[in-house]
Specification:
The complex is a heterodimer of chains A (982) and B (193). Chain A is built from 45 helices and eleven strands. By secondary structure, chain A is mainly alpha-helical. A six-stranded antiparallel beta sheet of chain A has the order 1-2-3-4-6-5, with helices on one face. In chain A, a hairpin with a 2-residue loop joins strand 1 and strand 2. Chain B is mainly alpha-helical. Chain B has one domain. Chain B is built from nine helices and no strands. In chain B, helix 2 crosses helix 3 and helix 6 runs antiparallel to helix 7. The N and C termini of chain B lie far apart (41 Å). The chains are: A mainly alpha (982), B mainly alpha (193). Chains A and B meet through helix 1, helix 3, helix 4 and helix 11 of A and helix 2, helix 3, helix 4, helix 6 and helix 7 of B.
């Protein structure tokens, strides 16, 4: 321990200052820091840096909890009480031989020393320090009660106690037999024989319940079957009396150290809640499940206790008949399934309330009489189907289930009319069949997408046996609606046409008829036939408005369809009005947390954005996204959530939160792949959008890849002379130019511009945007005269038209001018560019880029102070605003490195230059910028006397720069050779 | 571990509190074994891994001692204070053992997603190393501000509430809050470097 009086003093002061500032509420702290008295000012930086973390530790709950620590071995050297040996005396018993040992303790064959009982006993010796008086008392009490459990199928508890040394013991009837599951297997018992055997146990447990004793640890190992074929239930020794509250439960478990096996444990046991008859029912259910199928009820992805516990608590059990041996499946399916599953309900109230009831239903089954247990409700079954088949069909099924549930949500709610119930059942069965019969690989041979799943279902509608027109229309409507949700317009179009046709057989005010028309209107909207769609809706909406209570859901849906039509047709004022009405109506009739509210908000956000009200648009998009996540909880893969996310992400771009936006967009992309398939059009469109933002956030290769992928997917279905194709080319060229791969970009940009000009003429603004990219590509190629000409033309045009976005073309022109070897002119251009920056959220980003160029120009003009200022400012912005390093930042680093060397400080230069060099080597090692970075790095090494590294770097630089078409690079090439410092 | 006469733990605690190093050692040893045994007992029950719930362990060890009449009830807070420190040792030792075990070549057990047996939660390795780093940082901090270290032991390793800590250290809850923030800021700084 160091004893530095200064250090100690310093710490004491700091400590006191910390106390003082931490006593203040957070808002007042920075003010306090700003007014530190002179004698404490030295502590300022440290205090500031400490306090900077304050918010973070709160949000992350730093040190709030100990992290999870897992035991990897069960060979923990736990201190055991002295293991017994044959001949030892425990209480009134003498040990004969060990029968086994487990988590709880050891079990010995033993006999009474006083010869009172001739039969040997099974003596259980729990591990545990038992200096607890309370345990002994408790055991004594229980012994009284447990000893009264006299039943032919229960192993008697004779005795229980604690030795003076503190060893507790339980003396049980010694049974020779095999565990029930083993017994059934080795003796090849048939289905009915197993049930009869099971009934013996059920009888025993019911009897014990009658005496207010709960077993709590029912499992095959505790059910032995003797050679005579009689079942015997063991281990009522840890059973607990049913008393008022069972809060002492857990402590006793801990004291006795009894491990319940999660395989057979009920959900409430796992949660450590008070136990009752119901948990024995559950365990019996698991035993029965195993006896009839040989398997466990839950399918696990990982064989860990955690996964098992999760499954018991949350997952739906597999249907027994699905796992049973072929010959038994038919017998088990139906009533036995129902009985077993009833035992396995998560909530004890839904299970058999008594074991007796369970036994009776089994008796009924054996007698061929109808059982009392009812199969599950529709919603429950649908969830179960999905849970089961999710394993087979994957994420697509989850999406479809979410979508279907949304489409048919009204169906699952309790409805008074029986007729409606029956209809609901039809739909349920049909939908269930979608999952049951799903071919996991669909037509395309890839794993199934959600859209394909529904298309498959379409083929099956005709085989639905029903004579009622309204049921058929209901089915068709449900399917069509789901397809629309997944943007499968082709599929929906077909389905809705059929639905509308068949709905002519219904009363025109029947809800399904109205729904069919509304859905068809939506199809029309998707096809761009807006007027026709509005016409349809104009007929439907008044009818619905006539009785809003009855038609509430459909009315809201129709208002949404109308809003969608306005949005897509670009009628943003009407869209906003319609969306507002939608929002209010939804709230009034159905509540806030509805998908329709999400859609309404999204429509309003679109309206704002198209009117350039970016901030409002952002706020509303955010609200829409948050609401969407509440309305569709889970992993956010519902299409509506995904759309809302994408919209929100784009709005973040406007707020200059590019990195966040890109993260969200990538998330959306992943989900879109799952929903629509990796080669789907919508995924292609996402790629095209995202590529631009990837590039501008410094992920250049990813940007190029995304643009290429977009082109590949979308381009194949698009006319190569169309504007859409030009947009695809534009995205590609943009990504390439951003990565400074001008050579590859030029042909692409040129072609894109040709298409645009051919379609709209040379003065169309988009043509100019492409012209700018052309200029950049030319500059990167070294054709700087051409580049300057092309870019100057754009600047002129923009000025003439009074466009406010002058800054970018001026900046690009300046860039090309510098590469052409005229830094003076370039500096003037950058000055103009700087002044032309539009105020707003994205101004800082733009100014950083311009400052780098101006700094580079000043450097060439030997205005070192000016250059330093510009570069420092630019780099500060980069560090603050950009998560990733960008090409502009690399430029700035090289320039600043050069400045440091000019000042005669190569050591400082080294950091910047090495960073720039690494950046280029990772991105594009043959690029002339990589060469330039290597050049200056090499010279820096030379200045530092690291000649080996210097030669390597300079050689690398020479190799690259020799191939460069850019004029100034010839001078740079010379610098790789001459030894003079510059 | 030798048997101790009843109620002497209280005495030991008081002496240890007032700085009697020998009393501290005795006390540590007495409770360490017990707490360790408890921790292992917990883990033995759970063959496939569990969260080491140190809060429960600390509370439970108190109950045991109280039940065995080795600690008088009114000394609960002092006991908790002490037990937290012991718990820290138990946890650290435990983690080190696990790490040694893993390094000792049972590679199959560490296999994360492909192996059938996943015994190591993928988040565990990170969690465990965090605990070790906090432990090291606490060692450093202890040279300057041992009272803060006690506080962290009680909150982080012992899982004690603000009220319990206030009682054990005989300070106000407000001070506990402030010092907790101070400790966390300093530790966050230490862990960031």
């Amino acid at each position: 321990m160091d004893h530095q009086p200064d250090a100690d003093q310093s710490w004491t002061e700091l400590n006191r200052l910390l106390d003082a500032v931490l006593n203040l509420p957070p808002e007042q702290r920075s003010a306090w820091l700003a007014t530190l008295p002179p004698e404490h000012v030295a502590h300022g930086p440290r205090l500031r840096s400490l306090l900077a973390r304050s918010a973070q530790i709160e949000t992350n709950d730093f040190l709030g909890e100990l992290p999870r620590i897992v035991a990897a071995s069960d060979e923990d050297a736990a201190p055991r009480p002295a293991a017994g040996r044959a001949g030892d005396t425990i209480g009134p018993y003498r040990l004969i031989r060990e029968l086994g040992s487990g988590g709880m303790g050891a079990v010995w064959l033993a006999e009474r020393t006083d010869g009172i009982l001739n039969r040997p006993v099974a003596l259980k010796l729990p591990h545990l320090a038992t200096r607890h008086g309370s345990l002994a008392e408790r055991l004594a009490r229980e012994r009284e009660i447990l000893a009264t459990l006299a039943h032919p199928h229960i192993a008697r508890l004779y005795d229980a106690g604690v030795t003076p040394e503190g060893q507790s013991y339980l003396a049980l009837e010694y049974i020779e037999g095999t565990a029930i599951d083993e017994y059934c297997a080795t003796h090849g018992l048939g289905l009915r024989q197993r049930l009869r055997l099971f009934l013996q146990i059920a009888d025993a447990v019911a009897y014990a319940h009658g005496k207010l004793v709960v077993h709590r640890d029912l499992k095959p190992a505790n059910v032995l079957v003797t050679n005579e074929g009689e079942a015997r239930l063991l281990d009522f020794g840890i059973a607990k009396l049913l008393e008022g509250s069972l809060t002492h439960e857990t402590q006793l478990t801990q004291f006795v150290g009894a491990a319940f096996t999660p395989d057979y444990a009920s959900p409430e046991q796992i949660r450590g809640e008070p136990l009752s008859v119901g948990s024995d029912v559950y365990s019996l259910g698991v035993i029965l499940f195993r006896l009839l199928t040989g398997e466990r009820p839950y399918r696990l992805e990982r064989e860990t206790r955690g996964a098992l516990e999760d499954a018991v608590l949350k997952a739906e059990p597999v249907q027994p008949s699905d796992l049973a041996a072929r010959g038994w499946r038919r017998e088990i399916r139906g009533d036995l399934d129902t009985i077993i599953l009833k035992c396995l309900k998560k909530s004890p109230d839904e299970r058999y309330l008594t074991v007796h009831a369970l036994a009776q239903d089994l008796e009924r089954f054996l007698d061929g009489r109808p059982v009392l247990a009812q199969p599950d409700s529709r919603a429950y079954r649908l969830r179960k189907f999905v849970a089961r088949n999710k394993l087979a069909v994957g994420a697509a099924a989850a999406v479809v289930a979410a979508v279907l549930a949304g489409a048919g949500v009204a169906l699952w709610q309790a409805r008074a009319a029986v007729a409606e119930q029956r209809r609901a059942e039809q739909v349920r069965d049909f939908i269930a069949s979608i999952f049951q019969n799903a071919d996991p690989f669909g037509e395309s041979g890839h794993s199934m997408s959600a859209v394909e799943l529904l298309r498959q279902a379409r083929g099956r509608i005709d085989s639905v046996r029903t004579s009622n027109a309204d049921e058929r229309v209901l089915l068709l409507n449900t399917l069509g609606s789901s397809m629309l949700n997944l943007q499968d317009t082709d599929g929906a179009e077909e389905v809705m046409q059929q639905a509308v046709n068949e709905s002519r057989a219904l009363d025109p005010r029947h809800i399904e008829a109205l729904r069919a028309r509304r859905l068809q209107a939506l199809v029309l909207v998707m096809r761009g036939r807006f007027d026709q769609a509005q016409h349809e809706l104009a007929v439907v909406i008044p009818v619905l408005r006539h009785d809003p209570e009855r038609y509430s859901e459909e009315l809201v849906a129709a208002l949404l369809a109308r809003t969608t039509a306005y949005v897509r047709s670009g009628a943003y004022d009407e869209a906003e009005r319609s969306a507002t009405e939608l929002l209010n109506t939804t709230q009034q009739l159905l509540g806030e947390r509805r998908p329709e509210s999400v859609e309404a908000l999204m429509a309003i956000a679109y309206a704002h954005n198209y009117r350039n009200r970016r901030l409002e648009g952002h706020e509303v998009a955010k609200r829409a996204y948050e609401l969407a996540r509440q309305v569709f909880p889970g992993d956010g893969s519902h299409p509506t959530v995904n759309n809302a996310r994408m919209q929100y992400a784009v709005s973040l771009i406007d707020m200059d939160r590019v990195d966040e936006a890109v993260d969200l967009m990538l998330e959306s992309l992943g989900i879109a792949e799952r929903i629509f398939g990796k080669e789907s059009r919508i995924v292609g469109e996402y790629c095209v959008t995202i590529s631009e933002y990837l590039s501008s956030s410094g992920q250049y290769q990813q940007g190029v890849d995304a643009a290429e992928r977009g082109m590949r997917i979308v381009g194949k279905d698009v006319d190569p002379n169309s504007i859409t194709y030009a947009q695809l080319l534009d995205a590609q060229s943009g990504a390439l130019v951003a990565a400074r791969r001008g050579a590859e970009s030029l042909p692409v940009t040129t072609r894109a511009r040709e298409i645009v000009v051919a379609n709209f003429g040379p003065t169309y603004e988009h043509a100019f945007v492409l012209q700018v990219k052309q200029g950049m590509a030319l500059a990167q190629l070294g054709r700087t005269d051409e580049a300057r000409r092309v870019l100057a033309e754009v600047v002129e045009k923009y000025q003439a038209k009074g466009y406010s976005s002058l800054s970018t073309p001026l900046y690009q022109l300046g860039f090309a001018t510098r590469l052409g070897g005229d830094p003076l002119a370039a500096a003037k251009l950058q000055q103009r560019s700087f002044e032309a920056i539009r105020p707003g959220l994205r101004a800082e980003r733009q100014s950083a880029k311009v400052l780098v160029e101006r700094g580079l120009d000043r450097l060439e003009l030997k205005d070192y102070a000016g250059a330093q200022e510009d570069l420092d400012q630019a780099l500060a912005i980069f560090r603050a605003k950009f998560r990733n390093t960008t090409t502009w930042q690399a430029d700035a680093l090289v320039a600043r490195g050069r400045l440091a060397m000019i000042r005669g400080d190569p050591a400082t230069a080294l950091t910047d230059l090495e960073e720039a060099d690494q950046f280029w080597r990772a991105l594009d090692a043959d690029n002339r910028w990589a060469g330039e970075a290597a050049l200056w790095l090499g010279r820096c090494y030379r200045a530092l006397g690291r000649s080996q590294e210097a030669s390597t770097a300079l050689q690398r630089a020479a190799g690259i720069l020799a191939k460069s078409p850019i004029a100034i690079d010839r001078q740079l090439l010379a610098l790789t050779r001459d030894g003079a410092q510059r | 571990m030798s048997e101790q006469p009843q109620s002497d733990l209280t005495d030991l605690i008081h002496r240890a509190q007032s700085g009697d190093a020998r009393a501290f050692d005795d006390l540590f040893r007495a409770t360490y074994d017990e707490l360790r045994a408890l921790a292992h007992l917990r883990l033995r029950r759970d063959q496939r891994g569990t969260l080491l719930d140190t809060t429960a362990l600390v509370h439970e060890s108190y109950l045991r001692f109280a039940a065995a009449r080795r600690v008088r009830i009114e000394d609960r807070s002092h006991f908790m204070n002490f037990a937290a420190r012991v718990m820290r040792s138990v946890v650290i030792d435990f983690i080190r053992e696990r790490q040694a075990e893993r390094r000792g070549g049972d590679a199959a057990r560490i296999s994360l997603t492909n192996g059938a047996e996943v015994l190591v939660d993928p988040t565990t390795a990170g969690g465990e190393s965090e605990v070790l780093r906090v432990h090291d940082a606490l060692e450093d901090l202890g040279k300057r501000a041992p009272e803060l270290v006690r506080l962290v032991e009680m909150r982080y390793f012992g899982g004690m509430t603000e009220a319990e800590v206030a009682k054990a250290l005989d300070i106000s809850e407000r001070t506990v809050r402030r010092d907790w923030e101070k400790a966390r800021l300093l530790l966050a700084e230490a862990l960031a470097t």
